[in-house]
Amino acid sequence: MINGRKIKRIGAGALILLGVTTSEYQAGHYTSGRTDIQKYEASMERKSSDLVLAKQEKVREEIREMAQKQETVLGIKHFEKPKISFEPNQENTLRDVTGTYNQEKDEIWIDLSRYSSGTLSHELGHFYVDKLNESLNNKNWRYKKGFLSFLESLFSDDRGTKLVAEGIADYFKHKTKGDTLSSGLNYKSFDEYLNEDGGSDAYAEIGYKLVAPILDRGINRGIETLTRNLPTNRDLKSLVKYQQRVLRIVEQNSSKVKITTKP
C-alpha cells in the first residue's frame, strides 16, 4: 500500500529540485545573454575604432599627396612634415572650423567629419609660411606670449596680420587646386569689405586678393616681404596703396641675392 505522506514528500522534493534546476538554467541563460551583448558591443567598438584609425591614416596620406602637389604646382619645397592631430578640440568646435594650424606645436588639426581637400591645402599653407619664416629668422612670426605682448595687444590691431596669414593660406589652396579667381580689390578699405561680406571668411577672401599679385612675383620672396611689412591700421584704410608699396619692395629686392633657406 502506498503511503500518502511519503508521496507528498517525494512530490515536494521533486518540485524543489525542479525549481532549483529551473533557477540555475534561467541564471545561466541570463549570464550567457549578457555576455553575448558585451561581446557584440566590444566588437562594434573595435570596428568603430578601426574605421577611425583608417580614416586618420587616409587623411595623413592625403596631406602627403597635397604637399607633393603644392611643391609641383607652386615650385616650392616643404621643409618637413607637419604633425597631425585629430583629438576633439573644444576651442575649434566653438569656432566652427574644419582645420587649424598651431605654429607653436607645428601641428595641423583636422576635423575628420567635415574636412575637405581645400582644408588640407589651406593649413599646409600656414605650415609652409611658418617654416619659411623660421628658416629666415628662427621665430614663429605670429606667435606671441608674455606680459609685454599682452600689453601690446591692448593697443594694437592684429587684423592686418590675420588678413595676410589667411590670404597666403588661401593662395596655396586656390593655386594648388587651379582655381581662377579675380585678384582685383574692389574697395579701398578693409572695413568696407567687412561691411559687404562680413564674417571670418572675409579675411581669407580679401586676403587672397591682397597677396595674390605679390606672391605671383615669387612665393618665397613675397612671403618674406609680406611678413616683414604687415599692414598697419593705416594700411587697412587703403589696401591698394599697401599692396602697391609691397610690390615695389619685392621688385626692388628681386635683383638682390635670392633668399637662402635651411633645407
Explain this structure to me?
- With 263 residues, this protein is mainly α.
- The chain contains 9 helices and 3 strands, in the order H-E-H-E-E-H-H-H-H-H-H-H.
- The protein has helices at residues 4-74, 90-95, 117-137, 147-155, 159-177, 190-196, 201-215, 219-228, 239-253; strands at 83-85, 99-102, 107-110.
- Strand 2 (99-102) and strand 3 form a beta hairpin.
- The chain is elongated, with a radius of gyration of 32 Å.
Topology-level CATH name: Neutral Protease, domain 2
How many distinct folded domains? 1
Distance between the termini: 109 Å
Tally of helical runs: 9
**Second-tier CATH architecture:** Orthogonal Bundle
Q: What portion of residues belong to β-strands? A: under 5%
Oligomer: single chain
Overall geometry comes to elongated
Topology:
Elements: H1 4-74, E1 83-85, H2 90-95, E2 99-102, E3 107-110, H3 117-137, H4 147-155, H5 159-177, H6 190-196, H7 201-215, H8 219-228, H9 239-253
Parallel strand pairs: 1-3
Antiparallel strand pairs: 2-3
Helix pairs in contact: 1-3, 3-5, 3-8, 5-7, 7-9, 8-9
Summarize this entry quickly.
With 263 residues, this protein is mainly alpha-helical. Helix content is 66%, strand content 4%. The model is unreliable at 14-18, 145-155 and 259-263 (pLDDT under 50).
Name its key features.
three-stranded mixed sheet, 4% strand, 66% helix, 263 residues, 9 helices, elongated, mainly alpha, Neutral Protease, domain 2
